[in-house]
């Protein structure tokens, strides 16, 4: 399987983002902020030199990538530049597994469709025997018809869905994901809305299926980082299994939370 992404794309996109905010921002300034010699950064971007694992980890941090993006970035680098053929193959398998499940959309795109129902609409179109009219979509998701219609138009403009000749809506074959850091207002908005949906699912008069659990446990912040990585891997594996299932007749949300309850103590 050919990779759809390259770690250089992450570097270039961050450079472009900074240059949009500051047109005078140069490659030299970028190399300074990344703490990489300008000549070496130029060679990396031009494919003349590769990245070691330690360099990839350091760059991923400097690029302010989210935890899942950092893992993906490092795996992309390892799949190409790891000294061991075994390590290259293992990294490539992780890359291919992630690309098979999700196609990342840009943060600027996600900001436009960060309300929960945009994602829900793209997925409900994949249900078996579902008649994808505006009225049916609105009814199944509890939306107003005009809200549904506007959402469909926006998703179509972004090429995330298509309208057939007989006026029915269909989702394309890609599976989209978005994972952005805490600086993303759109991401915070989306997750807060999904927490609200989870609360609604627990209401006494709600007949929908739900399964939730919560516990608190003391641990170290270092161990918490390790567990957060395992949770991300678990989420990826579960989503892949669900997406490969047959006879899809309902839409479910998988939401995981893992956060610190205590205040950070000053040194």
From TrEMBL:
PROSITE patterns for this protein: HTH_CROC1
Domain HTH cro/C1-type: 17-70
InterPro entries referenced in this protein's UniProt entry, alphabetically: CHP02147 (IPR011873), Cro/C1-type_HTH (IPR001387), DUF4423 (IPR025537), Lambda_DNA-bd_dom_sf (IPR010982)
Pfam families: DUF4423
A GO MF term: DNA binding
Name of protein: HTH cro/C1-type domain-containing protein
Organism taxonomic ancestry: Bacteria, Pseudomonadati, Bdellovibrionota, Bdellovibrionia, Bdellovibrionales
């Amino acid at each position: 399987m050919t990779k759809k992404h390259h770690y250089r794309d992450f570097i270039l996109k961050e450079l472009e983002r900074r240059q949009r905010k500051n047109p005078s921002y140069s490659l030299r300034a970028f190399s300074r902020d990344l703490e990489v010699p300008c000549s070496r950064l130029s060679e990396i971007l031009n494919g003349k030199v590769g990245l070691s694992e330690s360099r990839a980890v350091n760059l991923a941090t400097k690029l302010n990538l989210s935890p899942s993006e950092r893992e993906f970035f490092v795996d992309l680098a390892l799949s190409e530049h790891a000294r061991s053929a075994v390590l290259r193959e293992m990294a490539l398998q992780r890359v291919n597994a992630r690309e098979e499940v999700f196609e990342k959309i840009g943060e600027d795109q996600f900001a436009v469709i960060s309300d929960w129902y945009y994602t829900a609409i793209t997925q409900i179109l994949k249900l078996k025997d579902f008649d994808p009219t505006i009225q049916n979509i609105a009814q199944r998701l509890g939306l107003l018809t005009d809200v549904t219609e506007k959402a469909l138009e926006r998703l179509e403009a972004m090429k995330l869905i298509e309208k057939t000749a007989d006026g029915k809506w269909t989702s394309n074959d890609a599976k989209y994901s978005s994972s952005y850091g805490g600086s993303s207002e759109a991401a915070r908005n989306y997750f807060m809305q999904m927490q609200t949906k989870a609360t609604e699912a627990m209401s006494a008069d709600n007949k929908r299926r739900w399964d939730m659990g919560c516990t608190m446990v003391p641990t170290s912040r270092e161990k918490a980082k390790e567990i957060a990585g395992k949770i991300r891997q678990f989420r990826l594996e579960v989503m892949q299994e669900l997406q490969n299932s047959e006879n899809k007749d309902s839409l479910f949300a998988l939401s995981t939370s893992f956060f610190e309850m205590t205040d950070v103590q000053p040194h």
